[in-house]
Design a protein that fits this description.
Number of strands of chain A: 16
Number of strands of chain B: 5
Structural class of chain A: alpha+beta
Helix content of chain B: 10-25%
Oligomer: heterodimer
Order of helices and strands of chain B: EEHEEE
Number of domains of chain B: 1
Helix content of chain A: 25-40%
Structural class of chain B: mainly beta
Low-confidence stretches of chain A: none
Radius of gyration of chain B: 11 Å
CATH class of chain B: Alpha Beta
CATH superfamily of the largest domain in chain A: Aldehyde ferredoxin oxidoreductase, N-terminal domain
Low-confidence stretches of chain B: none
Shape of chain A: globular
Chain lengths: 622, 76
């Protein structure tokens, strides 16, 4: 075993639920330097260990929780961690990141990652207190709300601050976009990881740790933290004040707020669900994640017309748009109720909102009857939205169909509905409009996890001189470039920004804390003691894109799966972007530019030289 | 004439913390004149919206307009 003093625990916990066994292994420094943690670590193990074509909800799939080199260190923004597996929603590589406290606690318990294998024959949860790892019966927790389960586990373990990651009823019922939550308010939302956890009969993982990773140069890290602690009130003030909901009114005024299933980009009721309204009415408090002073998370409470429980936090921008404008709903309290229901039942709010908006459009266009819907499923009907959330989580009525994901539902409802399903590779679109942010549309298409806004570019940030643009210039970004431009220059920008974002999914750090790439390089040097370079940084990011790409190609996906739905090539009929559409030729050319700059062929297959440059030539031998 | 101004995206760091105010304006005042009146550096502003819709810099303001000033935003 290679000795590693700093940054990593060099301990990876394996739990086999079929055998009821646990073991610990040491990946070693050479592995960590190339992969850092998070996505690159997960993708490495999934590629190496999963049999091609296996059933995502079968016992052979593996579920991996992974922190990164910075998770659980005192660094501002180090509270995130990742979970990955083959996705039941896309049939491709899947992962998702969440903030909160679970990831930090896992690393403090002495583990960089947990690989969960097999399937239990009864409901269980895993308890981890440093070296003490137990698989415990969870029969009494199955079918309960996430709030009940967290309380019960903490009481059972006599540990009021034990950190609990868990699925809800939706995960138990194998809803294809079920999420995993930690501390009730933080969500690994995307890719259906909750369904994979449910398929293993694993309700929760509870962890308590007492041995944080060691830091090579704590005084350097302290100085960097001091910079962020002093400067976040200037750099990220709006995130504290308004949370991510600050985005909603800006995107609406710009014409890019997804509205009525992406048919429009401007919502007449936006004021009623925007940040000022939330702040003035239901906002109860602001909370945050491990080691973060920004506290961008909302906690909301309402006592009428419906009760909204503050135990489940409050809606992010994505949720306000997915359950709000995209369903034509401007009733903030009921949107917050929908958020609370998704959170307690364990549903991804983005996919849930898009599945419902898809069903609403199908209903209004006559492809779905009132009898099939079980309610009057018109855009704007908030009660119908709440009804369907419950139906989906419990797989009842129309919920049984929608629980399979929007792509599968459209395949069942017939060819006329295919173009109404707002998805890429089966994953529902997040709340960002490609007709406003053009390269983001290309990013949706090429993302290994299906449509994603986190490891993507947001063109609007780089459309004018700004500190955000200056920060990424060392990555080779030029510009500014217009948000609606598609070009070779834009493809270069997309590659640089998305690779950087993939890298931060390896460290695993929060995008909302504005660390620059140069600061991040210094941070990794301080934590690990390595002479870590910017070249290595970007290579880690490239591995985190390339390994999932290779996984997907092995599963049978091709360049044809890098698509965007026809709607985005059709002009908006109204709103600030009336007449605006993506140009198909420019889109195709930019996609090809992306492939080429990544070192892939014209079908999106990484070239052997690309693999060798990244130290992934072992893939060629498999 | 007065307009109702809201300042978003952390731009209130240039307005002594003020996020909402009324501004008296003269005839022919343009949308971006408000940015200058408030002392917000132009390059920090993504766009100005009037009554909830993005407008050109030279858009003329009218009495009672709601003027929103936004910084660039990305993900959420």
């Amino acid at each position: 075993m290679m000795y590693m003093e700093y940054g990593f625990q060099n301990r990876l916990l394996r739990v086999n639920l079929t055998e009821g066994s646990t073991s610990v292994e040491a990946p070693g420094e050479a592995f960590y330097r190339k992969h850092i943690g998070g996505r690159a670590l997960i993708a490495h193990y999934l590629y190496k260990e999963l049999e091609p074509g296996l059933e995502a909800l079968g016992p052979k799939n593996k579920l991996i929780f992974a922190g990164g080199v910075l998770t659980g260190t005192p660094l501002v923004g180090s509270g995130k961690n990742s979970v990955g597996a083959k996705s039941p929603l896309t049939g491709a590589y899947g992962d998702s990141e969440a903030g909160g406290f679970f990831g930090a606690e896992l690393r403090r318990a002495g583990y960089d990652a947990i690989i969960i294998e097999g399937k239990s024959d009864h409901p269980v949860y895993i308890s981890i207190v440093d070296d003490q790892v137990e698989i415990r019966d969870a029969s009494h927790l199955w079918g309960q709300s996430t709030g009940f389960v967290q309380d019960a586990i903490r009481k059972e373990q006599s540990e009021p601050y034990m950190r609990v990651a868990q699925i809800g009823v939706a995960g138990e019922n194998l809803v294809k976009f079920a999420c995993i939550t930690n501390d009730l308010k933080h969500f690994y939302g995307r890719s259906g990881m909750g369904a994979v956890m449910g398929s293993k009969m694993l309700r929760a993982i509870a962890v308590k740790g007492s041995r944080p990773p060691k830091i090579a140069k704590p005084e350097v890290l302290q100085e960097l933290n001091k910079f962020m602690t002093q400067n976040w009130p200037t750099m990220a003030a709006s995130l504290h004040e308004n949370g991510t909901s600050a985005t909603l009114l800006a995107l609406n005024a710009a014409g890019g707020l997804p509205t009525r299933n992406f048919q429009e980009g401007h919502f007449e009721g936006a004021e009623n669900i925007g940040a000022p309204q939330m702040n003035a009415t239901i906002l109860k408090s602001r909370e945050g994640c491990f080691a973060c002073p920004i506290r961008c998370k909302r906690v909301v409470e309402a006592n009428g017309p419906v009760y909204v429980d503050p135990a489940y936090g409050g809606p992010e921008y994505e949720t306000l748009a997915a359950l709000g404008s995209n369903c034509g709903i401007d009733d903030l309290v009921r949107v917050a109720k929908g958020n609370e229901m998704c959170n307690s039942l364990g549903l991804d709010t983005i996919s849930t909102g898009v599945a419902i908006s898809f069903a609403m459009e199908c209903y209004e266009k006559g492809y779905l009857s009132q009898e099939q819907a079980g309610c009057e499923l018109k855009f704007g009907n908030a009660e119908a939205m709440l009804f369907l959330i419950s139906q989906i989580a419990n797989r009842q009525g129309l919920g049984q169909l929608l629980a399979e994901g929007t792509r599968a539902a459209s395949q069942e409802l017939g060819v006329k509905t295919h173009d109404l399903a707002m998805e890429v590779k089966g994953q529902e679109l997040p709340m960002h409009e490609p007709r406003l942010k053009a390269a983001l549309g290309v990013g949706y298409a090429v993302s290994p996890t299906g449509a994603d806004h986190c490891h993507n570019i947001h063109d609007t940030i780089f459309a004018q001189p700004s500190s955000s643009l200056e920060a990424v210039r060392p990555l080779g970004v030029t510009g500014p470039l217009p948000a609606d431009e598609l070009s070779t220059d834009k493809a270069r920008m997309l590659v640089a920004i998305s690779t950087w974002r993939h890298f931060t999914n390896c460290t695993v750090t929060c995008y909302f804390v504005p660390w620059t790439p140069e600061q991040m390089q210094a941070i990794i040097q301080a934590v690990t003691g390595w002479n870590f370079s910017m070249l290595e940084l970007m290579d880690v990011g490239k591995r985190a894109v390339t390994l999932p790409r290779l996984f997907n190609l092995r599963e049978g996906l091709t360049g044809k799966d890098d698509y965007l739905k026809p709607r985005f090539f059709e002009p908006f009929k109204s709103g600030p972007l009336a007449g605006k559409a993506l140009n198909r030729e420019q889109f195709g050319a930019t996609l090809q530019d992306y492939y080429g700059i990544m070192g892939w062929d014209d079908q999106g297959r990484p070239l052997s030289g690309t693999l060798k440059a990244l130290g992934l030539e072992w893939v060629l031998k498999e | 004439m007065t307009v109702n101004v809201r300042i978003f995206g952390g731009l209130h760091r240039f307005t002594e913390g003020c996020t909402e105010c009324k501004k008296a304006i003269s005839q022919d005042t343009c949308a971006w004149d408000i940015v200058h009146i408030l002392g917000i550096p132009e390059h920090e502003v993504w766009f100005v919206a009037v009554n909830g819709v993005r407008v050109a810099k030279e858009e003329i303001l009218f009495d009672g307009d709601r003027v929103d000033i936004f910084a660039p935003v990305g993900g959420g």
